[in-house]
Amino acid sequence: MSIVSEKLEKARKAMAEIQGYTQEQVDALVYAIGKTIYKNAVPLAEMAVSESKIGSVSEVIAMNEGTAAEFYAYLKDKKSVGIIAEYPELKMMEVAHPVGVVAGITPSTTPVTTACGNAMHAIKGKNAIVFCPAPRAKGVTVKTVELMREAIAACGAPIDLIQIVSEPTIPASQELMEGANLILATGGSSMVRAAYSSGTPAYGVGPGNAPVILDRGYDLQHAADLTNLAVSVDNGVACDSDNILFYPNEVEIDFFKALENAAGIVYTAPEDVKKYREVLFGPNGAQIPSTIGLDAPVLAKLAGFEIPETKKFICLQVADVGKGDMLNHEILAPVVKVKSYDTFESAVEMSIRNMEEQGGIGHSAGIFSNDMDHIKYYSERIPVARVLVNQPTPDAWGPVTNALSPAVMESCGTWGSNIMAGNVDYTHLLNISKVTMPLDAEPIDGAKLFAD
């Protein structure tokens, strides 16, 4: 029996042991997982950045703490065991069942939070989860899983509800995905495609490349400050970070000043922008891995510039969108492209074209606007699962400041070749039976219904 097969068998045995757990017992495990990651946020962040060379320690600490706290706050009062809803007027109720053993594929960009969030969601539904980490961050993901295992064991639960393939290989990940009951595939497009082709039901994600429009009449400094939050968070490795920002022609000078005031640095000279293009992208058009998640001053130095340590993000002015510039690909670094527009409608068209030609369709988009008609116009046309209004686009993960459900997986619908458009949460890790009783209703009279 292979190592993966052994883990799957242990997972199913562990699930059987908690079959009779009450909602209170399940929630105690979810609390224990969140608490241990919150308490260990600092060493896990230090380990993640040291191992993967991605992101900044302070940002990863905040992400680790935020994920643990926000997820538990969201989950603690939700029903996920037994009868979870009753509808007397419909004479129907809903009963929750586990989906089974979940295969959790974790990325190198968020090795701690993805494991923490998906474990909390899986355990909430009395499932087991077996992780397969990205090789670039396997050490910190293994440590994260060890802490979560210890936490649930301290509650008296079987430790094998949470496991990890500590030496990830392509054959091991394939075997895990084929043997599990459900896959949570967070990572590159090739990994998501492998999950979908495994024969096992899977939730996947698509690449980000979020466009953001600054509408006329919106406070420039506030938009710049929100842009700083969106682009600099964890040095831009979040898939929902701003990637291209459209602004009205006439505010260029004032808006660029606002961006500089918000800890950004703006490059407008084509020769300067070219230097960043050559540093960020290889001849095949893909971002060079060693540039992912670098601090802005470090990235600037690679391009031949010295910028103050206080600068958190880099703005590169582009002349065209979509295929017109390689820079319009998703960039996993504290970099945002900036492009002016004449009419609001043209900004919307450029946003769509950029995603259609350079990726990101289905994921997320943002808008800074006080005009509800413009917000509605944009939302009705932009092909994404999440539109963030007057907030940083990375808030697409579902913090308490908006109504999206907290998630470490942001699916992109059929636009992004995903089965759903929205945030994957605990409800997607449940099989829900609808128990229905007869209604006192008259049969539908088709002749009367279609009499006209």
Rg = 23 Å
- Distance from first to last alpha carbon: 68 Å
Q: Which structural class fits the helix and strand makeup?
A: alpha/beta
- CATH superfamily descriptor of the largest domain: Aldehyde Dehydrogenase, Chain A, domain 1
Mean pLDDT: 95
The parts where pLDDT drops under 50 for at least 5 residues are none
By DSSP (H or I, 4+ residues per run), the number of helices equals: 15
Largest sheet: 7 strands, parallel
CATH class of the largest domain: Alpha Beta
CATH topological fold name of the largest domain: Aldehyde Dehydrogenase, Chain A, domain 1
Tally of domains: 2
Oligomer: single chain
Number of strands: 17
- What would you say the CATH architecture of the largest domain is? 3-Layer(aba) Sandwich
